[in-house]
Fold these 3 entries.
Entry 1:
Amino acid sequence: MPLCHPYFVVPVDGDSAIASLTKRALPRSGRPSTSTTADNIDKIRTLVLENRYMSVREFAQECDISTTSAHGSLSDILHMKRVAARLVPKD
């Protein structure tokens, strides 16, 4: 049997291609994310409103999360970006 990418494998046992792709798209089991909880997002939001000149590293230290998680929370969840060393909402 030749090796190929799992998305190109023909489904077996009567599964449709859509159903087999949907099964792969389900969230993985394991440890849940603890950095993007509602408490951390609210804490970052209040810190931004108190001081827009804080660095991402300072936000991460205050919330006890990684710098990458703090940056992701600011940009992806809170939709903020840096403009002239100040955090402002994205347009």
Entry 2:
Amino acid sequence: MGMMKEALMHPEDLYVLVKMKRAAAQVEKQIPPDPHWAFCYTMLQKVSRSFAFVIQQLGTDLRNAVCVFYLVLRALDTVEDDTSIPEDIKLPILESFHRHIYNPDWHFSCGTKDYKVLMDNFRNISTAFLELGKSYQEGIEDITERMGKGMAKFICKEVETVDDYDEYCHYVAGLVGLGLSKLFHASGSEDLAEDHLSNSMGLFLQKTNIIRDYLEDINEIPKSRMFWPRAIWSKYVDKLEDLKYKENSTQAVQCLNDMVTNALLHAQDCLKYLSDLKDLSNFRFCAIPQIMAMGTLALCYNNVEIFRGVVKMRRGVVARVMDQTRTMSDVYGAFFEFSSLLKSKIDNNDPNASLTRMRIEAIQNSCVKSGMLNKRGCHMYRSSPAYNSVYIILALLLVSILFAVLATK
């Protein structure tokens, strides 16, 4: 029903929504027959549908390695996220997790829902890991060890300064960027990217998620999860949780805009990393999440709803990004469009207005200097035009027919 409602609200997205629905159905049919690999790809769809889609862009060997890499780190993250685990139990698990991936008999029950299933059946991940090539195994082990130790460090340490914030994001996401670059290189499809570019790819995504997930993290039971650095939020409120109260809405939005402005620092590195990729499948795999991060930042900026509920890109825009991201021209165009949307929301009275505008203009200058903006064949973001009732009724009938056809296949 969500997809049908969105098609009615934005009929221009109808074609790409149906196309992505069919593509998602195809992904579900491509589950490998081996039980452990079937578990891996089934779990991938449950813990991240968007990632399960973009990973299909990759060749088989690299796809398997990235699938296992993602699930290993997702399991590690589940241990870190479970605030019910006592520290004296959690810390040794995080620090030794890289050794557990070699042991098909190891598992640790924690997390909830699909994440609990992942942890209870971790032997399937280990079995799949042991079938990967040695270079893939070494890359995954190295990043898992570094990430686990970094997570353990921040279990015992608050995110106080902006440097702390960058360090934490490096451990939980920048290392993912470094790991993926290692896997690409091990596959023979790419040159080894510079570490600072790989790191920025992870930080841009992680900071976007931290901004978007403020309310979910601050309301975490039994203990809040606080990732916004004190150096930023303390300029606006006395306690991080004060941002969610309506009487602090003005300060909350100013703090939010400060956080978004910080995240924008990594956008140009991401553009450089993407422009250096040689393989189209690797490119699409990397580019789609980065575009969605830029779009999400544009939606979050100056948006008090971050402190009230869920803010995310609508399905039609996500489907358009997934379907139509093919070249660097598409990436530059999407970054330019979303940065323009963000720029249009800058309030001159915001304490960081000048800095935000400067960073947006730097991103846009990179897009313009590429010389590729005029080569685009699509637009990622469109304002909703007005449609009369007859058009909406026709769209409803068409959507119903298409769903009926899909249901028979």
Entry 3:
Amino acid sequence: MNRTTLSFLGITVFGLVIVTHCAGLRNGGTERCICKGNPLKSMRPKRMQNIEVFPASASCAKIEIIVTRRKTGRKVCLDPKGEQGERILRNKRKLKPANKSKLKRGKRQRRQ
């Protein structure tokens, strides 16, 4: 094979690899979100045991609210754009630790 044919073949293969890789990224191939599918719009508060809020990050571009059910311990996703999800996010932003000195961090504070 002559030199131009090899160069053309190499560029073609490289181009196909790049196009295939970019197509996978466009469809959300690299996102690793906890919530998949349709999240719940609301849930009765007395059925909630724990609420975890995960902000948008490099691995997932959306805010996620994970609620642990009281009886079963099963974790379900709550829609952050729903009425109850927005209320939870507002309340989480308002909550701040009252006294930071009571938080145990490091060896120095544990000894005191």
